[in-house]
Write a structure and sequence with these properties.
alpha+beta; 2 domains; four-stranded antiparallel beta sheet; 11 helices; 14 strands
Length: about 475
């Protein structure tokens, strides 16, 4: 009789074990599309079978085990960080590239070419009022094109400032979630697969924004360190970041009035910008604090756009100043064609304009020589287009050539960012696929396991029925 009761107990324990395994499998199927979810398995542990020692064998439910692999999770997050960086760079650079049109149809390039054509036509008819007026018109177009380019780049810079601030807000929102999840995890008596899925989904979303490392405590809570150094989450505590815009203290700025750089600050207000190396925030900062200051200038540099505007305007003014409006007597010296605000070297392009009071009659076409040339100054201005004289060049390039080099630099960076974005999209897909093979839910696999467990459950249920019938028969016989 005792053997029958023992067999009944063994079969009942097996039923409970298979029932728990079925619940885990059903939970996997229900959460197959849940972001961050990793499949679970209820272990089935064999019991010792030694009848002589009263050990009837059987099976019991073991611990619920997650298939999550932290190395695979980390690999996905690293690829997502890189993708976020390239995506933001590509978007910002595309806007900047639109400012630099080297097709000759618009912008600074077209305005410079038109100016050189107008002074060339003026050199043919130096006394023509119409030719002189065309020179003024084309010079005004050059000034306007520099102003517009500076304004467009400044607007892009302001837009990036806004995006950097929004990204910091998103980082804080995700780290606040993670701190809350840590609270829930610390209170939970047993692991919660749903909570675990939410934690890892938030970590993956955070990796799109900024680079970080994670540390896992014994109680399952996660610590998040930006750049591996600055804490964002520790236990149930969140450390919010913020943005600031200021000139660095060292080295002291050469141009104090230049636009400030964008910085990321920790919860204590300390500058941690140098720790940001990947993610969308890194892509935004690299364009905002790298390429744009190289064009518009900052505390340490004039900016290539301002340099081009200033050297072109100064050289044109110098050539006209060396010429004569009339031979006299007395001869009337030439006057400047361009003017700009001289207070800040980073404001030249934004303030470039025609000199106040300039009129067609004040353009100095005469070169006093020797030899005297009635159109000599106009010819010298026309020669700026292709001059090999170092005084007429910037870094060995003509003015249009220098502008083309700026455009090429922007274009090359944009091409690199787009190529990186494409490559990283494939890398992210591959990393997620590998992670899915390890911890993702396969509906085919779960369906197969579900059938196996159901049949095992049915077999043990039949065993319980048989043992129950035998027990009843024995009891009736004893009666």
């Amino acid at each position: 009789m005792s053997n029958l009761f023992s067999a009944l107990g063994t079969a009942s324990n097996a039923l409970r074990a298979f029932d728990r395994a079925l619940e885990a499998t059903q939970n996997n199927i229900n959460n197959a599309a849940t972001p961050g979810f990793a499949k679970q398995r209820s272990r089935l542990e064999a019991l010792p079978f030694e009848p002589a020692n009263g050990l009837p064998g059987g099976v019991r439910a073991g611990a619920l085990v997650s298939a999550r692999d932290q190395y695979a999770e980390q690999a996905v997050r690293r690829q997502v960080e890189l993708l976020g960086n390239f995506t933001q760079q590509a978007g910002a650079l595309a806007s900047i590239a639109g400012v630099f049109d080297v097709s000759g149809k618009s912008g600074i390039f077209a305005a410079l070419n038109q100016f050189f054509q107008s002074v060339s036509a003026w050199s043919v008819t130096p006394n023509s009022h119409a030719a002189r007026q065309e020179v003024l018109n084309s010079a005004g177009a050059v000034a306007t094109s520099f102003q517009q380019a500076s304004q467009q780049l400044s607007r892009i810079s302001a837009q990036l400032d806004g995006k950097i601030g929004q990204t910091a807000v998103q980082i804080n929102a995700l780290t606040a979630q993670l701190a809350q999840f840590n609270q829930e995890r610390a209170r939970a008596a047993t692991p919660d697969p749903g909570l675990d899925a939410r934690i890892h989904a938030s970590l993956e979303n955070l990796s799109e924004l900024v680079n970080f490392t994670t540390l896992y405590a014994a109680d399952g809570t996660v610590t998040v360190l930006l750049g591996g150094q600055t804490p964002l989450v520790q236990g149930d505590r969140q450390f919010a970041v913020s943005t600031g815009f200021f000139q660095p203290a060292a080295p002291p700025p050469v141009n104090p009035g230049a636009p400030p750089a964008a910085h990321l600050l920790d919860s204590n207000g300390q500058d941690i910008t140098s720790q940001v190396s990947q993610g969308q925030l890194a892509g935004l900062l690299s364009v905002r604090n790298g390429l744009l200051p190289g064009l518009l200038g900052d505390g340490q540099q004039q900016g290539d756009l301002n340099r081009l505007a200033q050297q072109f305007a100064d050289r044109v003014n110098q050539i006209l100043g060396q010429g004569q409006i009339t031979q006299g007597p007395p001869p009337q010296s030439g006057v400047p064609l361009f003017a700009y605000t001289g207070g800040s070297p980073t404001g030249v392009a934004a303030t470039l304009a025609l000199a106040p009071g300039i009129t067609p009659s004040l353009l100095a076409a005469i070169d006093p020589g020797p030899p005297l040339g009635a159109n000599g100054t106009a010819l010298r201005l026309a020669g700026l287009a292709n001059s090999t004289n170092p005084a007429d060049q910037i870094n060995g390039l003509t003015y249009t050539g220098y502008y083309s080099s700026l455009s090429a630099r922007v274009g090359q960076q944009l091409a690199d960012a787009k190529q990186g974005e494409q490559t990283q999209s494939l890398a992210v897909a591959q990393a997620r696929s590998l992670r899915g093979e390890i911890s993702g839910v396969s509906l085919d696999e779960e369906a197969t396991r579900l059938i196996e467990l159901q049949r095992s459950y049915q077999a043990n249920a039949r065993m319980v029925t048989v043992v129950s019938e035998l027990t009843e028969t024995v009891i009736n016989m004893l009666r």
